[in-house]
Amino acid sequence: MSATRTGIVHLPDPFVLEHGDELHVAHVGFHVEEQAGPTVVVLGGISAGRAPTWWSQVGPERAIDPREVRVVGFDWIGGGGDSRGPLPGERFPAITPRDQARAMARALDALRVDTCTVVGCSYGGMVALALAAIAPERVDHAVVIGAAHRPHARATAWRSVQRRILDLAEELRDPRRGVALARALALTTYRDDVDLDRRFAGRSIDDWLDRHAAGFAERLSAASYRSLCASIDLHDIDPEDVRVPTTVVGFEPDALAPAWLLDELAGRLPVLAARHRVPTIHGHDGFLKEEAALDAILRTAVPSARVAA
Description:
By secondary structure, the chain is α/β, with parallel strands linked by helices. It has two domains: 3-152 and 234-308, Rossmann fold; 153-231, Rna Polymerase Sigma Factor, Chain: A. Helix content is 40%, strand content 19%. The chain has eleven helices and ten strands. The strands form two sheets. Strands 1-4-6-5-7-8-9-10 form an eight-stranded mixed β-sheet, sandwiched between helices. The protein has a two-stranded antiparallel sheet with strand order 2-3. The longest helix has 19 residues, at 153-171. The mean pLDDT is 95.
């Protein structure tokens, strides 16, 4: 049986960021499913927390089995968990995926993790690439799901509009409503047009948008949403710097991480382990919805599968 441990790791003060700003009193929240054996770091999107309960691929008999491997997760700096986030009235500095990776490397030191397999989805895939680029000696294998080495320009435009919604809502002194509206817009970019039309053609989509957006607004502040949304757009990793075995997984179609951009990443990686294409009607949300396809992929990529085999 594995034992769960949670806590925080304090970072150097100040923690100097990629673009020159300094973050004071910085720390990273972690979650560990303690188990003898190899370590698998699991990273999700901007709404995921340090506990991997957000993902069906983690659990007994699943591709990432906490009974076989040590599962580690982190809260995002700038997010709404136990890592350092924006304080009331604070001008929070720009945080990049490379900054997140540097903080995680410090946390892995504190947890006495020398090497790991890192599995990242969406924003977590960006951070996985960053960790593999800055600390290749500690990454055995990077599994990058629904993410490329840079953001797509159209996706950046969508996020720019989301941040402007946040700004306008703050001017109107209704920041939570701004988060809900911005998230509602984001939801339409995560799903494929075929899926949305199949579900909502001829009837209102408002209730679905409002329900999911309201729940998100309760978990994440406007400042945190703005920080993580901007962090995606600051993502920029040279694929040639990722000198570890890397598996690239994409969903087709995916408006946020299109196949051609993932092909570019795969073609430039020095050590491409595999390039998987997963047909889906769920768009970018395929990393949450395409359970069978991801199970098969992960069982060839993470240590738990090799142990089980």
